[in-house]
Amino acid sequence: MRPLNRLTPSRRGFLLGGGALIVSFALPPRLAVAQEPGEKKLPGSLQRDPKLNSWIRIDERGAITVFTGKCELGQGIKTALIQVAAEELAVAPESIHLVTADTALTPNEGYTAGSHSMQDSGTALRYAAAQARSLLIGAASARWRVPRERLKAQDGAVVADDGRRLGFGALVKEELLHVAADGRSQLTDASHFRLIGMRVHRVDIPAKVGGGPAFVHDLRPPGMLHARVVRPPSYRGALLHVDTTPIAKMPGVRAVHRDGNYLAVIAEREYQAVAAMHALEQAATWNETPTLPEPDKIFDWLASQPAERIPVLAGSGGLTGGTNILEATYRRAYQMHASIGPSCAVAQFENGQLTVWTHSQGVFPLRAAIAQLVQLPAEKVRCIQVDGSGCYGHNGADDAGADAALLAMALPGRPVRVQWTREQEHTWEPYGSAMITKARAALGADGRIAGWDYSVRSCTHATRAGPAGNLLPAWLLAQPSTPPPPRPLPLPEGGGHRNAAPIYSIPNARVAYEFVSAMPLRVSALRSLGAYMNIFSIESFMDELAQAAKADPVDFRLRHLDDPRVRAVIKVAAESFGWADYQRRQDHGRGFAFARYKNLAAYLAVALEVAVDRKGRRVRLKRAVAAVDCGEAVNPDGIENQIEGGILQSASWTLHERVAFDRTRITSRDWSRYPILRFNGIPDEVRVHVVNQPGTPFLGTGEAAQGPTAAAIANAIADATGARLRDIPLTLP
Amino acid sequence: MITLTVNGNAHQVDVDPETPLLYVLRDELALNGAKFGCGLGQCGACAVMVDGAAVNSCVVPVGTLKGRRVVTVEGLGTNGKSGVLQQAFIDEQAAQCGYCIAGMIMRAQALLDRHPAPSDAEIRTHMEPNLCRCGTHMRILRAIRRASEALRHEVAPRREAGR
Is residue A650 in some structural domain? Predict the structure, then answer.
């Protein structure tokens, strides 16, 4: 654990003169986690669950349990939340037991999505812990008849300036914490932080490197059975015939389950289930229908679909103010989450109660969906989140939870573990939608943008469970549930139109989202939703405009930006990269991009260099430098880890990834048909600067790198080759 | 019955010899380290060492392993008492979701056992079969380099003492 010195740049910021950072620190001081007096809303998720003891409980021995409705998805949220709670409670992080999303135990914080966890849960826990500390000090003050000012909390006790000391456990009597959260407690000042801003090691990593039970995949409750499902070979496959008799007689097989087009096997040992699954696959014959658009004409299909036009910015879109009109169309293929571990869940139905252990991102919505699916009252269903393989959005997790629930209901008493195959995850997960964007802009004689007209078109980015009809197994049953018609996610965050509005100061800007409700390929939320494509498009177009204006791409952006926090991250990234004195080399190019995620979360700028192999038509990201401002930085190493990962994942999407299909089937069935970035393609160096903003609200970070990285790569390819690539995955001519 | 040596201990397992090693490790021996990733030998999440070489346990029939030494990540150290390479992964915080990490460690261990001071290019080439989806590659490389340096410092004095 190392302290982050907030007065000098973080350990990776040493290359800078510091001038850029001083710009941001020279901002007027802000109220801690800005809560204006008189504002009705409670901070963060306290608004959703305002009972203090929903968040923090302390028993008579002084043991502290902290509850969050958010899930560990590999983003390190457990550690950051412990840091926040321990900071405000004035205890060591090791003394906190954290309980994550569990419908029986924790507050309902919806989904762990949209980079909301620190904003929602981190903020709630910070205020709840500060209030708990204040109540404990108040109790000691009453007990000792000593004014509060002479007391402080320290290491799990309240201590007085005369040396008297009472442990938290001795003070919590009479249900001290059974009160309403007020969100008004004095927060610890940034100058006194012991934990916030520190590089605390993640609590979940030791088990993950040591073979401990770390994932839902590793659960082994006594008597557990192993299940495998057999899916139709394509979305609309209908089961014509299957003889299950020989399969039921295979070694260890306890049940062959059939319900309409839904097929599964349940066996004592795991490989017996695998063998039975293979036999069942061989035994089943399906009728398939070609329901997918022509893959080579997928963008024609998308462009031709009826769409709901949703205004995002209502300017005129007029381009008459400029002398030079540019326009461009950008396209993005379907892409998948492609988690390394296929989805898995364990469920048990016993005494009328169904329990599901799941790596879902939203245990409360999943409980509602499963209760509807298996026709139990919601209070008879408990969903417990356990770590899974990284999901990056809505993958097969909820569907596997539903599989486990259905099969546990079919065999009451014993826990049933369902493990999807690689092929099932690849072909049945909901993808990130194909997208088309069209940008037009006018450049004025003064070298500034004088008009802007932009549209984005896609299928939905939100088909998460809540309704049972969004669970894939529900479609296959003899009594199927059908998915509700998809709806666009509302602004300001948006779905396909997330980040569709440019952050730049542009007159007459018109922006619209063309929402297509048809959904031939299953689609839903993939990390950053439409922001990836909108930022790719806008930031590519900004470079095209800069070129037309004969301006440096960084200077051109700064011309249209006033916000000092935006300018600060741009300057940090550019200076650290060495943008101004970049030495051009053969077949190399540099690219830059910036965005503020959702236009309301973390600010991120990235400068990077690519190397182009023209003969092999390959592009490699050589080095990348990012600067990120996510408000008050709780764990700088966790932030750097998320941004480094985001840059590499986005490079993989942008340079390599496209879901392949024919008129009937998804053909990207495994890693050979859906290649991703490997060790031979990774950069030589990735550097991340955390531009801390002490005393400001937490801003979501986990998805901030996706869009800027994509655009910076395209801009660097254009710089290296002169070719402007507008279709993702970017392919050299 | 098949006799199998895993992490130095002999085990008798009563399974079909065609059963891939992965299922024996996870289901019969209750070891968590090797992960199911693809079942096709494409991703390395299930990598373990057999006689010192990294193999994908999802495609190795257990019947072929008589008399051979299998080492899983648990054999390098467990939670609380980490081996050098595991500690390097902790020190570098070289994990996001962590699902691929045990496989990464086992493939890297096979390299370091044979070649304690590999170059960056050799590490990249050696790690090529393993996939990471979170984009933790830079940290994984740093952790392997860190372990390599730690092992050199550990090994050098021992060699001195042997003279």
Answer: yes
Residues A451-479: tens digit of each pLDDT: 999 999 999 999 999 899 999 999 999 99
Averaged pLDDT for residues A42-61: 95
For B35, the closest of A271, A341, A648 (CB atoms) is A341
Question: b/e map of B51-76 (b: 16 or more CB within 10 Å)?
Answer: eeebbbbbebebeebeeeebbbbbbb
Same domain, A198 and A252: no
User: Mind listing the domains of chain B with CATH numbers?
Assistant: 2-158 (3.10.20.30)
Same domain assignment for residues A531 and A622: yes
Q: Quote the number of domains for chain A.
A: 3
Instruction: Give residue A527's Cα distance to chain centre.
Output: 5
What number of other Cβ atoms are within 10 A of residue A581's Cβ?
Answer: 5
Of the candidates A36, A78, A346, A330, the residue with the CA atom closest to the CA atom of residue A207 = A78
- Residues A594 and A709: their CA atoms lie apart, in Å, by 9
A575 is a domain residue:
yes
> Average pLDDT for residues A614-620, to the nearest whole number?
93
**CB distance A588 to A720 below 8 Å:** yes
pLDDT by residue (tens digit) across A104-131? Answer: 999 999 999 998 999 999 999 999 999 9
DSSP A318-356: --TT-SEEEEEEEEE--B----SSPPEEEEEEETTEEEE
Which of A1, A112, A209, A337 has the highest number of chain B CBs within 10 A, making it the mutation to test binding with B?
A: A209
- A window 675-714, beta carbon within 8 A of B: 676-680, 682-683, 685-686
ipTM: 0.95
Query: Which domain-ending residue is among A207, A226, A249?
Result: A207
Task: Express as a percent the part of chain B with pLDDT over 70.
Answer: 94
Residue B158: predicted pLDDT: 47
Contact criterion met (CB < 8 Å) for B97 and A74: yes
Tokens of A729: 């995955």
Q: Residue A418 domain-assigned? A: yes
Q: Which domain holds residue A577?
A: 310-319+431-461+496-728
- Shared domain for A62 and A159, answered yes or no, is yes
Q: Does A226 touch chain B (CB under 8 A)?
A: yes
CB contact under 8 A, B40 and A671: yes
With beta carbons less than 8 A apart as the criterion, state whether A460 and A484 touch. no
By Cβ distance, the residue of B19, B36, B90 closest to A419 is B36
Verify that A437 and A418 share a domain, yes or no.
no
Eight-class DSSP state of A203: T
pLDDT at A18: 29
pTM: 0.94
- Residue A421 and residue A370 share a domain: yes
Q: Say if A417 falls within a structural domain.
A: yes
pLDDT in tens, B105-121: 999 999 999 999 999 99
Are residue A108 and residue A127 in the same domain, yes or no? yes
Identify the CA nearest to B95 among candidates B106, B86, B107.
B86
**What's the Cα-to-Cα distance from B155 to each of A207, A407, B110, B142, B152, rounded to whole Å?**
27, 53, 16, 20, 5
Under a CB-based contact definition with an 8 Å cutoff, are residues A178 and A84 in contact?
A: no
Mean pLDDT taken over chain A: 93
Least confident of A145-154, A165-174, A242-251, A389-398: A165-174
B37 closest CB neighbour out of A214, A226, A341: A341
- pLDDT tens-digit map of A294-331: 999 999 999 999 999 999 999 999 999 888 999 999 99
- Which CATH number does the domain housing residue A370 bear? 3.30.365.10
Rounded to a whole number of angstroms, the distance from the CA of B161 to the nearest CA of chain A is 31
Distance between CA atoms of residues A714 and A731, nearest Å: 10
Residues A646 and A527 in one domain: yes
Which of A158, A183, A207 finishes a domain? A207
- On whether both A177 and A227 belong to a single domain, the answer is no
